[in-house]
């Protein structure tokens, strides 16, 4: 078996290329997803499609990949421009930069489990989706 980080690096390359249809090359046919990853491969792909529609220039920048056994933990930055609808808010043209954390389990060179967390609070704030209040 090769280094699990290789499969994870390829995963991020495909995401950065917005090649969602090719995630089958690095993911098992039935990966388990948790948190933002969706429950299965179809939901994972759809979550990326939703982001790409809203942020067509989205860049995925893995910052740190740390391996322990079959697990790879990654700290990721996402950067792009809000150009399409996201969470009911039409494109604003605002630049976003958010952090994410993923924990991926790899077996036989395939990602079989993904837990994804993304700083959606910061994202929603950057696109102006959060109400602002003035202290009384």
Structure notes:
By secondary structure, this protein is an alpha+beta fold. The chain has a single domain (4-126), classed as Nuclear Transport Factor 2, Chain: A (Roll), CATH 3.10.450.50. The chain is built from 3 helices and 5 strands. It has helices at residues 4-16, 41-54, 120-126; strands spanning 27-35, 59-68, 71-81, 95-107, 110-118. Strands 1-5-4-3-2 form a 5-stranded mixed sheet. A hairpin with a 2-residue loop joins strand 4 (95-107) and strand 5. The longest helix is centred in the middle third of the chain and has 14 residues, at 41-54. The radius of gyration is 16 Å and the shape is elongated. The model has no long low-confidence stretch (mean pLDDT 90).
Topology:
Blueprint: H1 4-16, E1 27-35, H2 41-54, E2 59-68, E3 71-81, E4 95-107, E5 110-118, H3 120-126
Parallel strand pairs: 1-5
Antiparallel strand pairs: 2-3, 3-4, 4-5
